[in-house]
Structure formats: structure tokens, C-alpha cells
Amino acid sequence: MDGLAYLHLAETWETPTSQLQETNSQTHLNLISTPLLFFTIALTIVNFVNPALALRRGDSGDEVAELQKTLQSAGYFRGRSTGFYGSVTDAAVRKFQAENNLKVDGIVGPKTSAALRIKPEETTSEPAIEIGPKVDGYSSPSPATESPDRLKDQTENQPQEPLSQNSVLPPFVTDKDNQEPLQEQPKIQPQEQPNKPVRPRQNNNGKMTLKKTIYGNISPKSIVHSGSGLFFAQNMMYSHTITVYDRNFKLVKTIPDTVKLANYGFSKFKGSHKGSPVEAAFSSDGKYAYVSNYQMYGSGFENPGSDRCSPRSKHDKSFLYRINTETLNIEQVIAVGAVPKFNAVSPDHRFVLATNWCSWDLSVVDTNKNREIERVKLGAYPRGIVVTPDSKSAYVAVMGSSDIAKVNLIDFSVEWLRNIGNAPRHLVIDPNGKYLYATLNGEGNVAKIDLQTSEVVDKVSTGNAPRSMAISDDGKLIYVVNYFSNSVSKVRTSDFKVLQTVNVNASPIGITYDPETNQVWVACYSGSIMVFQD
User: Where do the domains of the chain lie, and which CATH numbers do they carry?
Assistant: First the structure.
């Protein structure tokens, strides 16, 4: 999925291990099914006769029900067959179109209908999967560990990155195609000025309450605080934008992801190109935001990555954007590897690091030169990154394994923290650099790792498919989004106890924390940002 617009249901696809077998068994269309074959043949004939009768969002009836069953058999639709073409069905169709090099418009016309009758090629050319990355050579993750393709980072293929898309649909399904937004609770401290610092929280056992829900033309894969009152939401290829908000929850600017690469020194690319913003990281002074693009759209980019990918496929390289947080303009474009998912800036601002999902490595970018100076091989599907407070090392979650890499930022050598857990995805580190925390997407847990011994000292279950995390500035709390549980969990780090779990809108995928207001911002891939007061 990663592939194309990656309809990138990728994230949505990062499914827990318990679901891998079931999901994989649904990956390909069952061409023997008479009802499904009848549906596709009938729809194709009807469409050729009258294209206006193509199925699209808002339609209902037996044809839609058969479409949903077809998509369900192929692993694109996880809800029940309702006969109504709503947002989830639209997202599933877009995902299918993206992965099959069709026009991604959510409309089941002649070409999409015909493609639904053709069984996708097996990716038998991919290397054999092995648990545990190899630094000297490439190895794929085992199906059990999750081919993040099914890791649901098939999902990472992000683009799911939302399956949805209507410019916003959740990478995956929710129980209903049309979901009622959660009710906001009364605002806390109505007299408080959001842009002014508040006193540090005195009670870490307090309750999170919903303060604001932000909607709009968004499909946020991530939400990241700048450290100085701005919040960047990366909206993938579904919206082709980065939306910036302030502490008053106001939209400050919508930044289009369109650039002219030739203007930044990449003369072989002609005309304008679009990106697909995935994640953002800020310099320690908050002056710059670095945004990774899952893939680029336009002339010269003909081989996009997918959730099932490896270096041998030679997928298109992508770019990071450097955005000035004062002007909110894209100032620099930096070439990295194939399908950069996550990025991080070292505290000393020497380096920007980006994990390349399909080239299975880490790009090291010199911030003074604004170019890549090193590429570090890691193994299948590297994802989360965190840099130690002293800027000497970086830890990288290798999602196609059970391991975490420790990269020396002096000589770029690699050591390993082995057997941490199934499919480590996101990492945070406490302010003192003593403990590392990792979400284990494949097993539904969060791990606490003692960096002195490199051993897991505790684990806690937070929900189905824990994805991203945020840590409080004092290191006493971590906040975890549980993708398939549609929830956020607050965990106390001292005893690793879940203090509270709150329900959120569909497909929570990103999260960030503002220490000045004690607020937690949650990006829901389904098209909203929820802000909680803690």
C-alpha cells in the first residue's frame, strides 16, 4: 500500500500480530467467488454503457454491498457490508486504486471495476523474511513479525496513511461509515489565556478532559508541537498540506506541499511536484520544522514505494522539507531515501535523521549543509527515532523485527537492543536519558527499557495497536494512541501503570504534548485533531 498515494493506508494497516494471519488471508481477491465475479462483470458492463452509473460516495444498494464484499475479501474493507457507500468504503476504494496504479478518485468506474477482477501479483520477488535486521545485508521481516505491509504498516504504507480519504478518511475502518463526533466536555479554566504559561501540574494522577476538537480539510498522520506554541499537522497525500495551529486552536496557515525541486538545486526535475507530509521534527530553538514526505508526485517519480518493499525494488527517493516557523514557508528541500517515515533533530542541531521505510536505512542530514552526509543500513522497515539528550546516539525502532538499533552519531556504527518486543514502532526517551519507551505495535504493549543494561524492565498493555507516544517534560507521564482501540492511554512511568484511557475519534495515529498548557493534542487519521487538558 505504501505504494502509491500510498493511500497509504499504511498506518492504518499496522495491525497487531493477532490479526496478521487473518489479514494476510484476505490480501488477494478470491476470483472463484461467483457473487464477486458477477458483481465486477456486471458493473463493468454497466459502466461502459453509462459511465454515470459508476459507484461513488453517497450511493446505496446491492451493487454497493457486493463492492464492499469484494473489497473485504481483498483485505481493503474491514467493516460490515452495509450497502451504503460512505467514507470507509470510499477510503477502501482509494486505497485499492492507489496500490493498483489507478486514478485515485474513490469512484468505481470501468478501470477500477476491471482491476477488481484481476488478482494482484504475489510479491514473490521480495527477499525471504527474517526476524532481526542485518546490518551487512538486507533481510525482510518475517510474516509473523509482520511484514509491515501487514504489519499493518502495510499500513505504514502509509498512506494510509488513511485509508480514507475523502481527503480524510481513516486508514481504516471504523464501525460505521458515518461516525458522530465525540462530545466535548466543558472547557477547563475558561479565563486562562492559552498562549500564557500555566503553572506546572501538581498532580500527575489528574484526569484528561476534552477541551477542543478541530475539524477541516485534514487527514492528520501526525501532530507535532514546535516547543513555542505552534502545532504542525501533516496531512499526507490525502490533503497535500501541512496545517499549522496556535494555542488558541486557530488555524494559522495551511502550507501546500507543492514545490519546484529545480529551484532547490534538483535540476533534473522539471515543473512542480507535490509531496505527502508524514511527520515533522523541530530544531531545538523552534526555528525550523523538518517534514518528511512519504513520496513525491509528478514527473520523474514513477516507482513509488509500498508497504511491501525492499531496497532491491529501487523505489523513488523522497525529500524532507525545511520550513521556517516564522514565515511558515518551505525554505529548503533535502533528498533522502525511499519512503521516509519518521524524522528527528539532534538536540545540538547538528543532524536531522530520517528513517527510510523502503530503502531500509537511516539518512543522516547535516543541518549546516542541508544535505545527506551518511546512510546507515538498519534492516526491514525502520520507523521511530529518538536522540539522546547529549546528541551522541540515536535509537531507531526497526518495525520489521523485534529489535531497536543504537546508532553512534560520531562514527555511525550500530549496536542492537535485541528482543524488545514485536514490531517496535515509536520511541521516546526520558529527559535524563535513563529510560527508553517503545510502542510495540505487534503485541499491543509499551515497553520500558533501562538504557544502562539495554534490558526491558517493564511492559504495559494500553490497547490494540499502540502507535505514537508523547512524554511529559518531567518524564513522569507518557501518552499513547491506540490505533484500533480508538483511544489514548496515560501511563505513569514510575510504576508503569495506566492511569486513564479516553475514547477518541477513529484512527488515532499521532500525538504531542504542550508542557506550558499541560495539553495533549491527538491526530485522528479519520479527519480531526482532539485536544485534551491534563
Answer: 28-115 (1.10.101.10), 209-533 (2.130.10.10)
